[in-house]
Amino acid sequence: MRYGGVITGVSVSHTNATVDEIETACRDDERSFVETLLAREGVDEAYVIQTCNRAEAYVVTAKAARGRQVLAEFAPDVRDGAIVEMDHEESIRHLMRVAAGLESLVVGEDQILGQLKTAMAEARAVGGIGEMLDDTLTKALHVGERARTETEINEGVVSLGSAAVKLAGKTLDLEGKTALVVGAGEMGTLAARALDGTAVETILVANRTVPHAEHIASEISTDASAVALDAIPAAATEADIVITATGSPAYVLDVSSLADAGETLVIDLAQPRDVDPAVDDVTGVTFHDIDALEAVTEATRERRQAAAENVHQMIDDEFERLLDAYKRKRADDAISAMYESAETVKSRELDTALSKLEAQDGLTDEQRETVTAMADALVGQLLSAPTKSLRDAAAEDDWTTIQTAMQLFNPQFGGELPDLPEATTPREGAPDEIPDDADVPETVLDRLSND
């Protein structure tokens, strides 16, 4: 596949969208959505990532306008303000930010790296990953790994959800325990994810909208299932740990709900409260509210924000390196096309010349080698300066020269030319066109025939 084209992306994430809107934008699975995108005319590559907190799609097309058309119906039922459209460079930067954890609910969280890799494998399985997306996603994953090894962006507890799980781990042995998470919003999602990294055996996720709870349960590796809100009292009697995080204006759990719960740790993350503080008087129930957790998160939140500044600079540096590599590949495409075209002409003219010389007086092997070497030398010397000029053009963002070279020297070049960064003015000394009366060198055949 020719290295070229531009990336167009679209995102519906927690930054601008609600849980409902994200769920609406998601498809059944990433692989089938990639296949759907690849089936659209003009799409060379495609990549989709879907998590609890984002639904994003990227396509590579020759023209950015075509990419925008393909993704225009990405989320038709989601309000415009929840959809973010990205051009080529914005898509590259965004993927780096996602991999680094800067776009996560919890800055620096590690889970997104595995999700990006899984989505990449799904897209690759159906032919969605070509050279452009491979380079971009590989670079993004590299940035994500650097961010976590060279900075403290993933150090410590930064969310109330993870703080609640840490507190639970200090209060009791989590091995083989059952946890109930009430609420499938941002905080409930974080709590479920944090529990997923512990020795808890079973996680129950309760929510008014059961599909939301099912979505979270499907995202974690621990044995998990969804329950409806009216089943919370029964689920609470089974659970050893209960973490609540809903937006309910009234109590979700009260004394009567937990009267038969036995030894149960209850942590209320909601504001206003989900749990009646009176449950602390129920025999066997240990109760903590949000005030007990705020102090746990503040220090690491500040540490991660400081690390994020370093990651921003890291992304800037890696972004420039990727663009430089992109420029070199574009120049190499043009240079390769130039040499292939010259080699075709040389071979044709050389065969004709040698045939004529054979017909005139015959040729020795040594003479044949001399003529062939002369033809090779001419090609090498004639293309030496253009090769340097094309590489200089890439370094100077002079895409007009590279694009023109692709058209001139690649006889197989077909279809639309890919979009390129806005072309600079021609380099000094480069003519706009060849004058009609310009001296054009004779071919080797012409010279030999004239002799």
From TrEMBL:
Subunit structure: Homodimer.
GO biological process: protoporphyrinogen IX biosynthetic process from glutamate
Organism (species): Halogranum rubrum
Region called Disordered, residue ranges: 411-451
EC number: 1.2.1.70
Domain Tetrapyrrole biosynthesis glutamyl-tRNA reductase dimerisation: 311-410
GO MF annotations, alphabetized: glutamyl-tRNA reductase activity; NADP binding
Keyword line: NADP, Oxidoreductase, Porphyrin biosynthesis
Domain Glutamyl-tRNA reductase N-terminal: from-to ranges: 10-151
Domain notes: Possesses an unusual extended V-shaped dimeric structure with each monomer consisting of three distinct domains arranged along a curved 'spinal' alpha-helix. The N-terminal catalytic domain specifically recognizes the glutamate moiety of the substrate. The second domain is the NADPH-binding domain, and the third C-terminal domain is responsible for dimerization.
Name assigned to this protein: Glutamyl-tRNA reductase
Presence of the UniProt keyword Oxidoreductase in the record: yes
Start and end residues of each Quinate/shikimate 5-dehydrogenase/glutamyl-tRNA reductase domain: 167-296
Stored SUPFAM superfamilies: Glutamyl tRNA-reductase catalytic, N-terminal domain, Glutamyl tRNA-reductase dimerization domain, NAD(P)-binding Rossmann-fold domains
Its job: Catalyzes the NADPH-dependent reduction of glutamyl-tRNA(Glu) to glutamate 1-semialdehyde (GSA).
Pathway listed: Porphyrin-containing compound metabolism; protoporphyrin-IX biosynthesis; 5-aminolevulinate from L-glutamyl-tRNA(Glu): step 1/2
Similarity field: Belongs to the glutamyl-tRNA reductase family.
Binding annotation for substrate: 51-54, 104, 109-111, 115
Biased composition (Acidic residues): 431-440
Site residues (Important for activity), renumbered to this chain: 94
InterPro entries referenced in this protein's UniProt entry, alphabetically: 4pyrrol_synth_GluRdtase, 4pyrrol_synth_GluRdtase_dimer, 4pyrrol_synth_GluRdtase_N, GluRdtase_CS, GluRdtase_dimer_dom_sf, GluRdtase_N_sf, NAD(P)-bd_dom_sf, Shikm_DH/Glu-tRNA_Rdtase
Catalytic activity: (S)-4-amino-5-oxopentanoate + tRNA(Glu) + NADP(+) = L-glutamyl-tRNA(Glu) + NADPH + H(+)
Binding positions (NADP(+)): 183-188
More info: During catalysis, the active site Cys acts as a nucleophile attacking the alpha-carbonyl group of tRNA-bound glutamate with the formation of a thioester intermediate between enzyme and glutamate, and the concomitant release of tRNA(Glu). The thioester intermediate is finally reduced by direct hydride transfer from NADPH, to form the product GSA.
